[in-house]
Here is the input.
Amino acid sequence: MRLLADEHVPPAVISAPRGEGHDVAVVGDEVELGSEDTVLLEFARETNRTILSEDTDFRGANPELAVGTHPGVVACDTAASPGKIATAVRQIEAYTDDLSEAVLFVPGDWL
Here is the structure.
């Protein structure tokens, strides 16, 4: 899975999916730190990356943020272990290759 990790995602959470072979771009490396969420969404669209974030704006908390057209959001609970988040990403990828306009909360009991 191709992911874009938001700037507040801890390094261990980024490393875990990378360790399983996922392509994880990081805000700060690929997109300027402090960029507006709309910039992250546009980058995700252009590079076909699912956003990995704990930011509630991507979960619909900000009604002005047009998240309806994006390649997907994995809303992670960074209080969870990095391994659990990586496992969730692996399971998502096993079930679908298209998360367009979906917001999935991980880890969770959705599988």
